[in-house]
Amino acid sequence: MKRRMLGASALVALTASLAGGAISQAEAPRRAAVYTADGKLEFPKDYRTWVFLSSGVDMTYSDAAMAMAANNHAFDNVFVDRAAHDAFQKTGTWPDGSVFMLEVRRGETNGSINRRGQFQTGVLGREAHVKDKRFKSGWAFFGFSGEGPGREIPQTSDCNQCHEKHAAVDTTFVQFYPTLQAAAQANKTFSAAYLAAEKGAVK
Ligand code: HEC
Q: Which of 143, 8, 142, 28 is nearest to 82 (CA)?
């Protein structure tokens, strides 16, 4: 009797998981932006399975990078959730609910057989950039410490100002993400300020 019951419950579990798979494929994908009751952003634990956009090495646009000693190196790994990425490839714009993760890792030269250049090691920090109507400007930045929920950075921060002023498409730095540029070009979504600055640079 016990064996039969186990068999039956295994069958129920299998049927449920098959049905679950079919349902989740038919439904719209789960939004990448999930908030806690007090407005923090849940740490997106699966961001490493999202679409990889770029690894900047030693980019020095932030105070943190500038403050680093000459021998310290860092990589910025940028990821975007897959639904947002797929929409961008079609439209050249980001849908509401898009989430970007910036993962900063220490660069190291000395290790194993390496003699020159750098490879990535431990995480130095993680930040998110989220498009959502619930924020005044339509976008917000979040800083994480560890893998707990991230706190919103005020809308007036340096983060918002630099991204609004210098980022090529809708406050995101598409000028540094080579696999997105064709879609922005085709849909003419590069910002006027970015295009003007580029024109100036060519002269
Ligand atoms: C002076 C300009 C500047 C400031 C200030 C700045 N950023 Fe950025 N940010 C950039 C650049 C440039 C990139 C592209 C990085 C790359 O290519 O690796 C970027 C990329 C990002 C991304 C990846 C998605 C995107 O929007 O392109 C996130 C997330 C991000 N920054 C968060 C932050 C947060 C949080 C702050 C404030 C604590 C901040 N940034 C402040 C220039 C800036």
A: 28
Q: What is the dihedral of CA 89, 62, 65, 199, to 10 degrees?
A: 60
Whole-prediction pTM: 0.85
> Tokens for 83?
């639904």
**Cβ distance 181 to 195 under 8 Å?**
no
Domain at 30-153: CATH architecture: 3-Layer(bba) Sandwich (3.50)
For the chain, the domains span 30-153
Over residues 164-181, the pLDDT tens digits come to 999 999 999 999 999 999
pLDDT tens readout for residues 32-65: 999 999 999 999 999 999 999 999 999 887 565 5
Residue nearest to atom 26 of ligand 1 (CA): 172
Summarize pLDDT for 132-158 with one digit per residue, the tens.
999 999 999 999 999 999 999 999 999
Lining residues, ligand 1, CB within 6 Å: 54, 56, 59, 61-62, 76, 78, 100, 102, 127-129, 141, 143, 153, 157-159, 162-163, 172-173, 176
> Candidates 102, 152, 155: which one to mutate for ligand 1, based on the most atoms within 8 Å of Cβ?
102
